[in-house]
Amino acid sequence: MKEYYGTKRIQAVECVNEDGRPGYNVKYPDGYMSWSPKEAFEAAYRESGRMHFGHALAALREGRKVIRDDWKLRSNWLGTISYVSLHAREDESELHLFMKMSGREMEAEWSPEEEDALAEDWCVVE
Question: Quick check: 45 pLDDT over 80?
Answer without folding.
Answer: yes
